[in-house]
Amino acid sequence: ARVCASLVPLASLLRLAHAGLRGKNQSPEAQVELVKAISRTGHSNEALRGPFLYTIVLFIATCFFWRESPIGLIFIAQMAAGDGLADLIGRHWGGGCKWPGCISDKSMVGSLAFVAGGFTISWALCWWFSHMGCFTFPVKHVHGTLPALSCLALISLACAAAELVPGLDDNLTVPFVAACLSKFLFRP
Question: Which residues cross the membrane (predicted)?
């Protein structure tokens, strides 16, 4: 099942690589469709940046953290729900509330949406996979110290902070921070 599931992000990686490397040679109709689907700038070479990195992270999660660990679920939830909501909510409602002294264009509203979305989806996926018997997710305490929900909140806050770092691609920093903290906080 793991191999079959990993074929989906692998196929997407190949498609993005082809689009980014050969985009100028495609028909205008295919070029417009591709640009509408994955680009913010209108350039097909953007397929080799954010969307490509995002898909690599999905491929890694599928290959290495399939269903037996909450680590993959948590870093995908932080990247997909947290970062995704930060972008959508931040662009729509965060215009007048930017982080003071922050070089990036990130908003406080977007960061709040990141924490709320990343936390909620991480918890929901961990609960669901645990309930389905894929792994045991500690609901009450992790190593007898922190409640598991507090750990998820900490991970979400750290990932939201990692997204604020200018000059680094959040498609890499967010899942990296989430994976490291998840590995540390939810280790057996």
Answer: 48-66, 108-130, 142-162
3-class DSSP state for residue 107? Answer: strand
> Which one is predicted more confidently, 43 or 52?
52
Confirm if 129 and 138 have CB atoms less than 8 A apart. Answer: no
CA pair distance 101, 92, nearest whole angstrom? 21
- Token reading at 24: 């100028």
Separation of alpha carbons 148 and 20, rounded Å: 41
Q: Which phi and psi (to 5°) does residue 146 adopt?
A: -100, 140
What tokens appear for 187 in the block?
Answer: 């280790």
Q: Measured between alpha carbons, how far is 131 from 138 in angstroms, rounded to an integer?
A: 11
Least confident of 12-16, 59-63, 110-114: 12-16
pTM (two decimals): 0.85
The SS3 assignment for 142 reads strand
